[in-house]
Structures are given as structure tokens and as C-alpha cells.
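Weekly modeling sync, notes
Attendees: AB, CL, MP (scribe)

Item 1: holo prediction request
CL wants a bound-state model with flavin-adenine dinucleotide before deciding which constructs to order. AB pointed out that an apo prediction alone won't tell us much about the pocket. Agreed to run with the ligand included and paste results into these notes for async review.

Input as submitted:
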Amino acid sequence: MHELLPLTEEQREIQALARDFAREHIAPFAADWDERSHFERSVIDRLGELGFLGMLVPEEHDGLGLDTYTYLLALEEIAAADASVAVAMSVHNSLPTQMILRWGSAEQKREYLEPMARGEKLGAFALSEPEAGSDAASLRAQGVRDGDEWVINGTKSWVSSGGHADVYLTMVRTDTPSRRRGARGISAFILTPDLPGFAIGKKEDKMGLRASPTTELVFDNLRVPASRMLGEEGSGFVYAMQSLDHGRLGIAAQAIGIARAALEHATAYAAERKQFGKALRDLQAIQFKLADMALRVAASRALLHATAAAKDRGVRTTQFGAMSKLFASESAMWVTNQAVQIFGGYGYMKEYPVERLFRDAKVTEIYEGTSEIQRIVIARELYSHS
Ligand SMILES: Cc1cc2nc3c(=O)[nH]c(=O)nc-3n(C[C@H](O)[C@H](O)[C@H](O)COP(=O)(O)OP(=O)(O)OC[C@H]3O[C@@H](n4cnc5c(N)ncnc54)[C@H](O)[C@@H]3O)c2cc1C
């Protein structure tokens, strides 16, 4: 029992379904996928068949119509088995599907949202660029209107699921060089790899999360029908920021899954490994480490779940969401570091899972807003309420 908040019967069932699937179909293969930087699409497809790619989409659009809390319970289970699979699930559910659900036209929902909710199409999110990360509003990819089409040129960086996704929710400038409108000059487009001028660029070689492909997108006179713009022209940045409020909860759940897995491995190892005639678990220094690890996992989870429950009641959770992501990601980094320490030399070896967990934890402090950006959001919200 991990949760402090009560779970409904349905929530318990979905959590158990995710846990059983993750233990059988993901965890045993995670080290090999990491080693080979291999993205296992069949696992994503099976998650789709189980409904896990449409968790937050209403049933009328072929989703499961679940609440945020239930979604995060399932996501933690997947992340505890493999953070790389979890990021594909998190981005898909939190960003492109939510954006099309909130701002898409009826036709866009039929064409993209519904197959995404059924798990037939995988979604990705393309905001970052080589020169625009934390300062995403400075992005440069440029669209120019040409009749019923937009012609787009530019490069997107570090797109998770790049090269494997079917739908890329992409932020592009649609203002003109002579009349720049800052964040209000950015629009969101639903791009697909079949469009002329769309190419997958460099695939990154990463420290962790190696089974999640991270690629560039290169647009060379890409032509997209104007009907693929999402919502209103000039609102894409606002849509992206509002969606990231939600996305951060997914990254917090991912971080908790990683930290929990590290805690479980360290607890089991400390019971087995003997030094000086005693199991490590009987050494107080190790007990204190395990206690502090368990505390941080529990505190991260309590904050995230309370935030999700508030969100499901309709409360605006920008500040608590940033706190959840910040605390869970920094805790995951700390907990995985302790886990490596408890494993000693073995913890540094690829033969044992804590090495991968340590590498995977780091990115949760970076993407969907770095820890510094989360602190900025939290501090800004302190003043916005006064
Ligand atoms: C594995 C991976 C997957 C990713 N997936 C996606 C994806 O699917 N889609 C997507 O759009 N992007 C994705 N990203 C990009 C990610 O969101 C950015 O890396 C992140 O937003 C930070 O931007 P940056 O790397 O350019 O760092 P920078 O913005 O250059 O920041 C560098 C450092 O300066 C700090 N800093 C910057 N501004 C401030 C400030 N105002 N005050 C204090 N400190 C500051 C940062 O916190 C950081 O420590 C991914 C990144 C990685 C590593």
C-alpha cells in the first residue's frame, strides 16, 4: 500500500493492471532496451490496447475518461519498470492528446485525437529548439501563410518519441519578421511525418532514458494545410504552457516510479548482502539511508496525489504542480544516488538495475521545465495570490 489518499475499486484495478503489465512485459526487458537504445513500439501498442494511451480522453472520443489521479497511479507503475516507456506514455497523454481535446476542431478530434486515444497513433510534443529551451517563447521555426497552406522552415530539438510518433504537436512562429509578437506570435500545428518537407533529424545519444528516442525534427519548406492549425492563430504558446502544467504531473509520477524502484531494489539488496558478519539492513547507517529514501518517495507521492486530486476537483494547480515536479525529481535523483551507494561497487555496474535508475532520474530535473524554472514558477505564484 503506497497511497495515503483513499483509492476507489476502479483505481485499484487500473493500478494493478498497470503493475502486472509492467512487471511482465516491461521490467524484464528494460536493461536490454537501455543497452541497445531500443524503442519497443509493440509495448506502446499494447499499452494502447489496454486503454493507457487514452486515459484522460472522454469515452465519447474513444478514451477511458479517467481522472488525473488514476492516470498518475498507472504511470508510476510503468515508470517503476522503465522510465523510457513511461515518458512516451506521459507525453502522449498529457500533451498532444490534451491539447487536441481542449482546443482541437471536431474534425481534428476525429482525425487525430480518437485514434490517439485508441492507441493507434502515438503523439509527441515539439516545442524546444537548439536556441530555445527554458526560454521557449524565443523559438524560431517560422511558418508563412500561402493560400490554404502554411509553409514551415526550422528545426525542433529533443523530441521524445521522435521518429516513432505519428502525430507531432508542434509550436511554430506565425508572426512576420516585420511585426514580431513574442509569445503571441506562436501557433500550434498538428504535424504528421507524411507531410512534404518533414524529416527526422539527428537521434541523440543520451546519458539515460536511452530506450526513448530523442530526435530533431527538420522542416524544409514543409507544407501543411491551414486546417491543421490547432485553435487560434497566435495562441500556441499559451496552449503549450497550460498543457505543461499538466505534463509536469506526469514527469513527477515518472520520477516517483524511478525512485520507488530504486528503494525496492536497495531494500532487497540490503537484506541479502552481508559485510562484517551482518546483513546491511542491520547496520544503522544503512537503515537511516533506507528510511530517508522511503520518506522522500512517500512525501513526493503525497504531494503529487494531493495535487492531482485538487486538479480533478477543478482547482488551478500551477504552483502545486511545479512543486510536485520539483520535489519528486530532486528526490528521485537523491534516492537513486543513495541506492547506488547501498549497492556499493555493484551499484556502479550495469549488471544491477540501480545504475540505470540513477541515469534515468537525472532527466526528470531537466525536461518539461528544469528545476530552476519550477522554482521560478513557484515563486511567481507566491506573488500572484497576494
Ligand atoms: C531526454 C530529453 C527529452 C526531451 N523531450 C522533449 C520533448 O519531447 N519536447 C520538447 O519540446 N522538448 C523536450 N526536451 C527539451 C527540454 O524541455 C529542455 O531541455 C529544457 O526545457 C531545458 O532547456 P535547455 O536544455 O535549452 O536548457 P537552457 O534553457 O539553456 O538552460 C540551461 C541552464 O540554465 C538554467 N536557466 C535557464 N533559464 C534560467 C532562468 N531564467 N533562471 C535560472 N536558471 C535558468 C536552466 O535551468 C539550466 O540549468 C527534452 C530534453 C531532454 C534532455
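Recorded for review: The mean pLDDT is 97.
Action items: CL to compare against the apo run; MP to circulate these notes.
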